[in-house]
Automatic annotation (TrEMBL):
<dbReference type="GO" id="GO:0043005">
    <property type="term" value="C:neuron projection"/>
</dbReference>
<dbReference type="Pfam" id="PF04969">
    <property type="entry name" value="CS"/>
</dbReference>
<feature type="coiled-coil region">
    <location>
        <begin position="104"/>
        <end position="205"/>
    </location>
</feature>
<feature type="domain" description="CS">
    <location>
        <begin position="3"/>
        <end position="87"/>
    </location>
</feature>
<keyword id="KW-0677">Repeat</keyword>
<dbReference type="GO" id="GO:0003351">
    <property type="term" value="P:epithelial cilium movement involved in extracellular fluid movement"/>
</dbReference>
<dbReference type="GO" id="GO:0007399">
    <property type="term" value="P:nervous system development"/>
</dbReference>
<dbReference type="GO" id="GO:0030331">
    <property type="term" value="F:nuclear estrogen receptor binding"/>
</dbReference>
<dbReference type="GO" id="GO:0120293">
    <property type="term" value="C:dynein axonemal particle"/>
</dbReference>
<dbReference type="InterPro" id="IPR019734">
    <property type="entry name" value="TPR_rpt"/>
</dbReference>
<protein>
    <recommendedName>
        <fullName>Dynein axonemal assembly factor 4</fullName>
    </recommendedName>
</protein>
<feature type="repeat" description="TPR">
    <location>
        <begin position="367"/>
        <end position="400"/>
    </location>
</feature>
<keyword id="KW-0963">Cytoplasm</keyword>
<keyword id="KW-0175">Coiled coil</keyword>
<keyword id="KW-0966">Cell projection</keyword>
<dbReference type="GO" id="GO:0005634">
    <property type="term" value="C:nucleus"/>
</dbReference>
<dbReference type="GO" id="GO:0005576">
    <property type="term" value="C:extracellular region"/>
</dbReference>
Amino acid sequence: MPLPVSDYSWQQTETTVFLSLPLRGVSIRDADVFCTEDYLKVNHSPFLFEVFFYAPIDDENSKAKIGNNVIVFTLYKKEAAMWETLSVSGVDKEMRQRIREKSILQAQETAKEASEAKAAAKREDQKYALNVMMKIEEEERKRIETMKENERIKATKELEAWKEHQKTAGKPEKIQKDEKFHQQKKKIEEERKKLNNKKSLTKNVASRTLPTKGRDSENIFCEKLKEDNVPAPRTLGSIKINFTPRVFPTALRESQVAEEEEWLHKQAEARRAMNTDIPELSDLKEEEKNPEWLKDKGNKLFATENFLAAINAYNLAIRLNNKIPLLYLNRAACHLKLKNLHKAIEDSSKALELLTPPVTDNANARMKAYVRRGTAFCQLEMYVEGLLDYEAALKIDPSNKIVQNDAEKIRNIIQGTELKS
């Protein structure tokens, strides 16, 4: 049942109404404000505030500021005039219900119009963006086509220039070959004339020069073929090399195994002695691999107010076995001491999940989980949630005086009759 709020103050000018509504523990996150031109509602559990305006207001331009346990409204009147009262008088229950329904319908219509306008604006933006993208793509396509055409023209010109160069460069070379051929032919004819004058030596000269010349050419050609006949390169292959895995970067032949093993052992002992982080499971002793032993160690550290070390012990125990509810319950107590309130809520909730089914044997643990979670909620100024957890704890143990007194204090804080502690 919501609690109606009647404690408020208001001031006005001819165009504006200033409304101040005090609510303990109110914040932007959990305050529900609904406003139309005729009706204003504020819902902050368990409080409810309603007002039916004396005259219409401009709900679109009006605004509210939430903070410091108060909500301040700045409401602009649609017509400049001084109001006799803030809320219209003489309104029965049925009339109020009609005003509420009318305000809800009006808000729905306004939200629908805003949604349609937003959707239309979004469509226009998408259409404009699509047109711009099409234009950009068309310009890019034209630019690429122009580049291709320019490259084609350039390549064609270069090819034509190369062909012309080949024609002009090849013609003198042909002429030189022809002249050299004519000179050789003329020389051969002169030699033949000389040979004809020496008839007795013609056959010998012919037999010694021409065949010898042919054999020398053949021998040179064969040697050239032998030089060009180079064997093909060998096929590629891969060699797989396996290295022995090592913790240290040095090679095994350069290291001293005994000294390295001693160093690793000392590092593991130092981590256990410092207890500043969670060690690796391979570094643990046999007794340290037992979750119950770790839980007892965490309890002893908690008793000496070494809460960080106790959390580390519980963390390692949870790594070994995450189904023990007392580990989460004890770690929640450590987080409460260290003001890690969100972690305390999370661990208490996990403990309650594991403490099922609710039986007599786990009643004490369930009550502690509710109390610790409720304490964390209250320290976060979430008093309604904290009160629910304390009431759940009282259902388990109704005769617990300490829990009863704390629950009563939380109720007084919610109702505003007691200051926060």
